[in-house]
Backbone:
């Protein structure tokens, strides 16, 4: 316990010096002015010589409006791990919706820290003020603080890099401990609920290499603040998740948020009146967030906006007579958000405010989207989520049935190659049907479903082949019909 010995030494040296200073303050008035001035100068010098340590105080409250200091709470969080190991008296606070505890040292405790081989000490304390009001009760006001002590020869290292490190780490820990939120827009306002989706990349059924690639990409992004600022790009990244329904697109968004500890802003574009409202919503999003637009192909008629425009130019006033799309009729309103409005949302100037944001689009029909919307630089990473592979099935079997291997796995592996089934459907068969769950029964029900799906796929393929054959026969007959008069003429 070196830090305690050092701390004791500080306390002793400090109290000796404090007593000397006290004696000096009592008697200095009896000395002539000039001598007093000199003596004071030498005492200060002696003080810094004997006590060559620098002390910085961080108060809990700042300013007259008594705002809680951000630095104080970042330090409190930063010190929580060393406090729980070193301090004898601790304070506990419950965070994350009563799910976890954060410990900090109680008043008048001291803990040591080390940075690049340099040792320093943090002490907690409080000032108590008593104020007598007109009423009978006495009001006590406590103001807490942290005091940092270090040797003066490390001044540059501690005041610069170390304190930056403490604040950065403290803030990052706070973000990790905070309760995350899921925001949804009601028109141009965000409302939120607590975000508690249990999906993680571990439970996501996906091929391991693909999973690793996505995780690496996300982590690299979240640690690349300096890189983005060096290359002059806003700190954001776009993901396009596409694939059939039930392949895990929404689940992956939740897993991303859980991995990076981000909030989610689920943006419903059809509820946004126009581009101005869209911009307002964007400005109100915080950093460390995922802004997700689900089913972007159905959200707005962004799919063929450009080609549609060209068509409209050709057709003149025909537009007014056009019947409304089913979506427009259902909503009873028509959002005025345009493709260019959305593009500005993604990469316009305002999108850089706040930084550290992921923008995620999900869609079932990637081919329907305007290429401008999903080009690299806007949607930087395109991820296809497809039908369940055997690798993905193994993740589900482990999650749902706690099975790493089983004699039916080989059969399932062969069937998954021939039948297309989404992870959502596979998962449905793995849900326990009895208590306690019978794994074999689940696997057998899955095999049965896969065999049916395989049969259906076979029938469909045969039908498609027949249709193709008959249509090519028709084409040939048509071609032959067209050729006949010519050949007759030639004859
Ligand atoms: N890859 C997967 N890994 C784990 N679970 C999955 C996966 N895909 C689907 N599921 C399960 O199926 C359900 C539906 O999945 P999800 O909502 O993520 O699909 P989706 O791709 O977003 O579908 P849609 O296109 O209809 O929005 C989820 O509750 C999840 O439990
Ligand atoms: Mg979805």
Residues:
């Amino acid at each position: 316990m070196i830090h305690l010995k050092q701390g004791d030494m500080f306390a002793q040296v400090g109290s000796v010096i404090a007593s000397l200073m006290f004696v000096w303050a009592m008697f200095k008035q009896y000395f002539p002015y000039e001598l007093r001035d000199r003596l004071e100068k030498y005492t200060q010098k002696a003080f810094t010589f004997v006590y060559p340590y620098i002390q910085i105080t961080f108060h809990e409250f700042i300013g007259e409006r008594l705002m809680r200091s951000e630095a104080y709470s970042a330090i409190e969080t930063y010190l929580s791990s060393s406090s729980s190991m070193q301090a004898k008296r601790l304070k506990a606070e419950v965070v994350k919706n009563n799910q976890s505890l954060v410990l900090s040292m109680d008043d008048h405790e001291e803990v040591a820290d080390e940075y690049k081989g340099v040792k320093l000490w943090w002490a907690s304390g409080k000032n108590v003020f008593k104020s007598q009001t007109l009423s009978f009760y006495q009001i006590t006001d406590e103001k807490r603080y942290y005091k940092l002590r270090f040797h003066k020869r490390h001044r540059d290292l501690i005041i610069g890099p170390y304190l930056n490190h403490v604040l950065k780490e403290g803030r990052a820990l706070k973000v990790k401990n905070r309760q995350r939120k899921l925001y949804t827009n009601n028109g141009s306002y965000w409302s939120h609920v607590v975000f508690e989706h249990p999906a993680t990349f571990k439970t996501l059924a996906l091929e391991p290499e693909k999973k690793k690639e996505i995780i690496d990409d996300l982590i690299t992004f979240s640690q690349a603040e300096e890189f983005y600022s060096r290359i002059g790009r806003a700190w954001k990244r776009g993901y396009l998740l596409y694939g059939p329904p039930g392949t895990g697109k929404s689940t992956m968004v939740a897993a991303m948020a859980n991995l990076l500890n981000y909030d989610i802003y689920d943006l419903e574009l059809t509820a946004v009146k126009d581009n101005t409202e869209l911009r307002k919503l964007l400005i109100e999003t915080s950093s460390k967030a995922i802004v997700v637009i689900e089913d972007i192909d159905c959200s707005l008629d962004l799919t063929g906006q450009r080609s549609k425009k060209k068509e409209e130019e050709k057709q003149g006033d025909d537009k007014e007579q056009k019947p409304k799309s089913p979506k427009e009729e259902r909503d009873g309103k028509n959002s005025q958000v345009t493709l260019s409005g959305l593009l500005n949302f993604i990469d316009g100037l305002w999108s850089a405010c706040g930084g550290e944001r992921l923008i995620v689009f999900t869609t079932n029909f990637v081919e329907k989207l305007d290429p401008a919307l999903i080009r690299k630089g806007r949607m930087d990473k395109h991820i296809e989520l497809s039908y369940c592979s055997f690798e993905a099935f193994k993740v589900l079997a482990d999650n749902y049935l706690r099975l790493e291997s089983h004699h039916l796995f080989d059969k399932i592996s062969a069937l998954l190659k021939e039948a297309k089934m989404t992870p959502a459907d596979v998962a449905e068969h793995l849900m326990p049907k009895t208590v306690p769950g019978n794994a074999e029964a689940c696997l057998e029900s899955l095999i049965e479903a896969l065999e049916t799906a395989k049969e259906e796929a076979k029938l469909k393929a045969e039908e498609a082949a027949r249709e193709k054959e008959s249509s090519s026969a028709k084409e040939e007959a048509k071609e032959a019909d067209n050729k006949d008069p010519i050949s007759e003429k030639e004859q």
Summary: The two ends are 111 Å apart (CA to CA).
